[in-house]
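Shapes recur. One chain:

:::
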Amino acid sequence: MNNMGDNSVQISTDQINDAEQTFDTIVTELQQHKDQLSSAENQYNKILSINDNLKKQSKIINAKYNEVLEQLEAERRAKTDIYMQYQEEKLQIVTREKDLAIHEADFYRLQAERNLSPNATTKSAHGKVPKIPEFQGATVGFPRWISWVSDLFDNYPQLTDFNKRIMVVDSLKGEARSWYDAEPDTSTTSWIALKDALLKQYGGTNSISNALNTISSMKLTIRSDFNTFIQRIRPAIQLVAKEDSTLAIAIIRQQIDTDIRRYLPEVQNESFASFEQRLRLQFPELQTKPLT
């Protein structure tokens, strides 16, 4: 028993105090770490809350942006439609005024010729009938040509309906003759029917209507064949917009799908040819863009 008492460890009071101080220090540091961790968690939760709020605000802003964008597109489309309608009506008025001016000029010319030649009426009734000028199918010269033909027939009443049709058909060349050969028989049974068919095909206002129908039927999407689209829509747009590149670009943009159009920013004072070239160069790349 005494030997066991001699081998016991003796711990001094200072050692105990040092151990207690070390333990207290460790406890204090542990509490500090806990406080720091709690503070970090609070900051993280605060940042997470702010991030959620920012995401919600971003969704609201994006929704408002898309709404405004749709409104702008609708307004632009409406303005384009109004302008196209205005251009069509303006063209109709100009065509009518031009036809009226031609008829008036021919009327005064014929009146002057009759006044200068008292026997003009007799000669026109019995003289040789002039040959009708050739018509190749150009819409620009059609009003004057059809007016000349109508006046010719009025001044030669001895011509039969068959004679009139033969003379007119003989004057049709190139594209105009190809059109006549493809016309149904109902359009050629009389001079009146043939004249109505000619007016419908080359009279101007109908051509504009056909052009507008062609434009509205065309749509360029990422799956479209670009060459087919541009070859069909370009002549129709040129007929409607004439030399107005701003109108021409506005028209074609309306027929381009939104997924493509949003990658084509508007360029101030850009010509239609430049826009078409820009679209042609970018279209293959635009086909690879993701859909919205």
Q: What stands out?
A: Residues 24-106 form one domain. The longest helix spans residues 13-116.
